[in-house]
Amino acid sequence: MVPNFGRSISFPRTRAMSFSKSSRHVRSVSLPGTTSSHPLLANLNADIAAIRAWIQDTAAAGSSLPAGLAAIHALHAALADLLLLPASQASLRSTTSNAAGSLLDVFLILADAHQGFKECLMSLRHAAAESRAALRRGDATRLASAARSQRRAEKDLARLAASVFAVSSKCTRLNLVGEDAEMAGAIMQAVAASAAASAAVFSAAASMSSPASSCKKMAMFVPVFATRKAAVPETAEAAMERLHVLERCFDECDGACNRVFRSVVQTRVSLLNVMTPTI
Hints:
Helix content: over 70%
Shape: elongated
Strand content: under 5%
Order of helices and strands: HHHHHHHHHH
Largest sheet: none
InterPro entries: BPS1_pln (IPR004320)
Structural class: mainly alpha
Number of strands: 0
Number of helices: 10
Mean pLDDT: 75
Distance between the termini: 61 Å
Number of domains: 1
Pfam families: BPS1
Low-confidence stretches: 1-36, 215-234
């Protein structure tokens, strides 16, 4: 006798099911032929909520850079999956040409920004290593040179953060029309969240670098190392340890930066393939 299993096949519960009421209602979309949101759309909404939560945590207490980059990468992975759906492609093709062109422009700006971010991280990592070596050898000139490199990288990060934050605001103001505007709107929300998180990551990197390798704070330790005196050795060693921690953090971000950059480029290529017939 064949046992009767009283179960039906269903999609697993997604992270979106545990969100607060406000985050669950950021965007409600029904795809043609379905009675509820598609699981891929639910995943995208979950990643949007997660990335917004990370941004809030960063503003409040400072979350880790690898966590922020991982959240951006996860968001783009969910967006890439959603763009494979015929319904998603149809919704994008039915939007205005200005909105479609804006999306492509946004991803180009994001790709350039993340490439620049990686270069800034390399500069900051090198500056931290140079500062640590200068402290160890008591070389004030070398320390000052490292501080100048650090400040240049921080200014570049501030510029990158401002550019992608402006992109985020632009996405939220786009006027979408068409019968599938809701689906396209969900995609716009994801792009806006990615840009806002990128701005937060860039700003967090600059804020981490500044207190850890401030030239004014560390310059007073140079004579200690140069003369090999025992005065406040713990404080000087602590400054070097902070720089070492900063180097390790930037090292950890290197792979994540590459993954995010590739995902941004791949998403833009997917969008270009979808929108090419209407451009």
